[in-house]
């Protein structure tokens, strides 16, 4: 089973890229972030024609998350992160699909930091940590995949000294990510590639992609029952070089069948 996460940076403007990638790689489950489309503008029919059933939580101009499945038996669990009924940003969606619980998330960027946006990021992270801990207690196979907007370590960023004051790399953000790992979650790509530099995002400016001046901020975290099933993974970095593409590339893993 192949599971991927991909920040599309505007699903309708990037739809040809998304459909091409789906056709070429055929993942079984896909978590999408930054749809930048209201609920009624999601391209459901185009994705159905490509062989995918979708759940989505849209938001006009910003945010938005979706889960795609080649198996139409996908059951929604929730469409927001618990803990703050007044938080209306579309950043979390969870479903039961193909024997898994799949949480798709688009964690707040948090810049500029310090400031209100960084405070919101830390508050969201606290809620996410609490919910993630509760998910582990269920002892069911869970994947939490998405754009975490966190650079976990210096190995995950080109020239880390340039990012010290950025919300993605500030100690509070990195500590929060380590707290998730300490709970019992496994960073799937780091499990497979302990030392290798892997990037999932390259800025549009300063020829970042051609220089491979990137960041790893898109992650797939596995609950303990799934770790032994992890057999492969990677980043489809050539997608970042396609015409009119997102500034992210898809990250993916493969799980052995039970």
UniProtKB/TrEMBL annotation:
Occurrences of domain Endonuclease/exonuclease/phosphatase (ranges): 4-248
Binding site for Mg(2+): 7, 34, 147, 149, 247-248
Protein keywords: Hydrolase, Magnesium, Manganese, Metal-binding
Top-level taxon in the UniProt lineage: Bacteria
Record-annotated membrane-spanning stretches: none
CDD domains named among the record's database cross-references: ExoIII-like_AP-endo
GO process annotations (BP): DNA repair
Pfam families the UniProt entry points to: Exo_endo_phos
Residues of the site described as Transition state stabilizer: 149
UniProt keyword annotation of Phosphoprotein present: no
Signal peptide extent: none
Cofactor binding, note field: Probably binds two magnesium or manganese ions per subunit.
Site (Interaction with DNA substrate): 248
Cofactors, names only: Mn(2+); Mg(2+)
Catalytic residues (UniProt): 106, 147 (proton donor/acceptor), 248 (proton acceptor)
Single GO MF annotation: endonuclease activity
Site positions per UniProt: Important for catalytic activity: 218
Membership in a protein family: Belongs to the DNA repair enzymes AP/ExoA family.
Identification of the protein by name: Exodeoxyribonuclease-3
Species: Larkinella arboricola
Highest classification ranks of the organism: Bacteria, Pseudomonadati, Bacteroidota, Cytophagia, Cytophagales
């Amino acid at each position: 089973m192949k599971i991927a996460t991909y920040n599309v940076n505007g699903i309708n403007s990037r739809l040809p890229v998304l459909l091409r990638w789906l056709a070429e790689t055929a993942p079984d489950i896909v978590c999408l972030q930054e749809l930048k489309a209201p609920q009624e503008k999601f391209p459901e029919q185009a994705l159905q024609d490509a062989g995918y059933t979708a759940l989505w939580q849209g938001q006009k101009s910003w945010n938005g998350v979706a889960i795609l499945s080649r198996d139409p038996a996908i059951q929604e669990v929730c469409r927001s992160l618990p803990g703050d009924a007044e938080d209306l940003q579309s950043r979390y969606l969870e479903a039961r699909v193909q024997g898994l619980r799949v949480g798709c998330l688009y964690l707040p960027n948090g810049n500029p930091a310090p400031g209100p946006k960084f405070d919101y990021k830390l508050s969201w992270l606290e809620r996410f940590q609490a919910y993630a801990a509760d998910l582990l207690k269920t002892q069911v196979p869970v994947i939490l995949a998405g754009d975490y907007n966190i650079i976990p370590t210096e190995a995950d960023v080109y020239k880390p000294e340039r990012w010290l004051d950025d919300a993605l790399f500030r100690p509070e953000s990195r500590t929060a990510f380590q707290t998730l790992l300490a709970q019992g979650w496994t960073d799937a790509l780091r499990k497979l590639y302990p030392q290798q530099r892997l990037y999932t995002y390259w800025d549009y400016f300063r020829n970042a992609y051609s220089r491979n001046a990137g960041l790893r901020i898109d992650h797939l975290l596995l609950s303990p029952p799934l770790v032994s099933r992890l057999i492969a993974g990677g980043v489809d970095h050539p997608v970042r070089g396609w015409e009119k593409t997102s500034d992210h590339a898809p990250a993916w893993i493969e799980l052995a069948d039970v």
